[in-house]
C-alpha cells in the first residue's frame, strides 16, 4: 500500500539492451574489414528493430524508479520507520505489526486491516474532528455504499468509469512504471486494487484518513481469489501529513479526491515533498466552468461553501495548473470530458 522493477522487463528496453551488448561485441573484433561489414549489418538490423519496437512518446524518456519496499516514515519527523514484521509491507503482515521511529521513539501499530500512521496515533484521551468533508467519509454507511452505488453516480458528471479511467492513468504514469505508487484518498481501494493486480508497480499503498474506507478495501481484497497481497499495503494517514520520506515515491494517484481536501495547497505541497524528481502526480476532479462561469456570484459562493464544508470547487483548469506550479510541480497536462478532468503534473528533475 520480492520488489521487481517491472519497467526493466519491458520488451523495448530489453531489446535495446541486447542490441547494445551485441554491437559492443562486434566493435571489439580486431579485423577492420570485418568490423566495417559487421557494423553496417548491425546498423541495418538496429534500424529495423527500432521501427518494430518503437515505444509510445510518453515512455521514450527512461526514468529510474524505486524498488524499495520499506517506504513508510514517521508522520512527525518523516524519518524512515523500522518494521518488526518479517513479511514487510503486505496485506497479510499488517495485523499485529509495529513500526518504530528511532528519532521520536514512538511506535506505530497495525490494526487488523491497516497501519495507523496519523500524527495523533496512539493518543488515548486526545481526539480531533476534521472538516465535514473529511468526517463524512468516515461514516460506516458511506464507506459501505461507496462502491455499491455511490461511485457509479460519477458517470453523470462525465467520469468515464473505472476501466477507462485506469487506461488514462496508465498513459500518464508510463515514465514511472515499475516503481511504487500511493493511491491517496483511496476510498474503498477501487484503484489501489487495480494497481496491485496490474503488476505494473513494485508496491501499492492504499492510503486514506477513513478507517472504515480501509476496512471496506480489506474486505474486497479478501473476497478476491489469487489477489497479489504481497503488492499492496493499507495505511491510515492525513493527506497533509504523508508518512513517507522526502523524495521516496514514484507516483501518486488521487481519484475524485482533491476537491474533498480541506486544503488542496497543503496536500499538494506534501505530494511534491514525497515525490522523487521525475515522479508523477495524477488525479481526477470536477471543473465548474463553461455555463457555470456565467453564474452570478459563483466565486464568493464557492468560497463560502469551502469554509463551511471543508471541500473545494475548481472553476477552471488554470486554477489547478496554478496550484501545482505554486507547490513545485511542472508539466501540467489534462484530459477533459464535460465536468470531468484528469490531470497530471511532475516533480522537476
Automatic annotation (TrEMBL):
GO cellular component: a single term: plastoglobule
UniProt name for this protein: Methyltransferase type 11 domain-containing protein
Family to which the UniProt record says this protein belongs: Belongs to the methyltransferase superfamily.
Keyword Chloroplast annotated: yes
Organism expressing this protein natively: Punica granatum (Pomegranate)
GO molecular function, one term: S-adenosylmethionine-dependent methyltransferase activity
Top-rank taxon: Eukaryota
Domain called Methyltransferase type: residue spans: 183-282
